[in-house]
Amino acid sequence: MRVLHIEAGMHLYGGARQVVYLLSGLQHHGVESHLVCPCGSAVAEAVREIGVRVEEIPMGGDLDLGLIFRLKRAIQGATPDLVHIHSRRGADILGGIATRLCGIKSVLSRRVDNPEHPLLVMAKYRLYDHVIAISQGIADVLSQEGVPADKLVCVRSAVDVDLYQQQCDRAGFRAQFGLAEDALVMGVAAQLIPRKGHRYLLLALPRLIQSFPHLHLLVFGKGPLREVLEQQIEVLQLQQHVTLAGFRDDLPQLLPCLDLLVHPALMEGLGVALLQAASAGLPIVAVEAGGMPEAVEDGVNGLLVPPGSDEALADAIYQLLDNEELRRRMGESGREKMRRGFSVEQMVLGNLAVYRDLLNLPEVTG
C-alpha cells in the first residue's frame, strides 16, 4: 500500500507530531508513505529522519489556488493508492479538489471542533471518501453539521507514553527558570492564540498567589498574543510569578518537573498537551469543552471547569495545589489512562483500518 500524506503545518505542534507518529507506525505495517508539506517545515525534517520520502512545495493558505495544481502534480508523481490530508490552511479544500482531479481515493483528518458554515460543510466533506475525527467530541460536531455517519470515523490522537517517563532534573530545572526551591510550579503548553484561554488563567493567578505565595506559572508556546499577555502580566503585577518560556521541544524533560498542568482553552479538538501531561504523571485542570473530557476524566486524572471562568479555574487549581496526595493519585491515574486508550499503535491501526476499508483490503488486527 502506498499512501501520500499532506500536512500544511510549519511547526511540530500537536497535529504535525501525530503525522510523524503515524508515518513511523505505518512503516512497521509495510505501508509506503510519501509526505507533501511546506518548504522549510519542521515536520519535513522529522519525517526524513524516519526514512519517509518528503516533497516540499509552496503552500500559501486558503487563497493559494495554485496549490491545487502543485498538489495534483505531487499526487501524480507519487502514484499513491490513496491520499490522506491532515491539516487545514488551504490543504483541506484545495487538497480535496486536487485528489478529485486525480481520481484518487482520499481521507481527511479533522483536528479542531470549531463549527463551520453549512455551505462549507456541504462542499468540503463531499470531496472525501472518509473523514477521521481525532476525538469523539469532533465526531459529534461533524455529525451535527451533517457529515454522513458512514463517512465519519473516530480515531483518537496518540501519545508516546514512555517518552514522558523521564526523571526530573529538579536542580537543573529550577536553575533554568530561576525558581525558588519551595516553588509550586504549574504549566500551560499551548499556542499563544485567543482560543487557548491564557487570559483567564492569568486572571485566576492573583487569588491563588494569596494562598500560595511561591506559585509560579510556566507558559510554553509561541504565537501572536505574546505581547498582549506580557501587558496583562504587567497590569496584574505577575512578573515574579509568570515566565513566558516560548516554544519548547524538550517538554518530555520539562513536564515531569511540574506540579500540575492547566489547559484553559475555550475549545479544543482533543489537546495533545493533555495527553503529554497525563503521560508524565501530572494532574490536569482543563475545560469541559470539545474533546478535552476524553483526555481528562473529572475527578480521576484531573478536574474540569466551565469555559471562560477564571473563578472556576482558580477553585480547581486550589484544590490540587492544596492536596499533594490528590495530585499524586490523579497523576498515576492519568498515566494509566494514556496507556489504555491513547497509544500510538492504537492510533496507527485505526488509520490503517480506514485505508484498508477504502481499498477493500482485509483488516489487520495487530
Automatic annotation (TrEMBL):
Tell me where the transmembrane regions lie: none
Respond yes or no to whether keyword Glycosyltransferase is given for this record.
yes
Q: According to the UniProt record, what class of enzyme is this?
A: transferase
Write down the InterPro entries for this protein, in alphabetical order: Glyco_trans_1, Glyco_trans_4-like_N
Alphabetized, the UniProt keywords read: Glycosyltransferase, Transferase
Q: So what EC number does this one have? A: 2.4.1.250
Q: Name one GO molecular function term.
A: D-inositol-3-phosphate glycosyltransferase activity
Q: Record keywords: Transferase included?
A: yes
Instruction: Identify the residues that the record assigns to the Glycosyltransferase subfamily 4-like N-terminal domain, covering every copy.
Output: 14-162
Please name one Pfam family that this protein belongs to.
Glyco_transf_4
Q: Which ranges carry the Glycosyl transferase family domain?
A: 173-336
Annotated coiled-coil segments of the chain:
none
The GO biological-process annotations, alphabetized, read as: carbohydrate derivative metabolic process
User: What PANTHER family does the record tag this protein with?
Assistant: GLYCOSYLTRANSFERASE (PTHR12526:SF630)
What is this protein's name?
Answer: D-inositol 3-phosphate glycosyltransferase
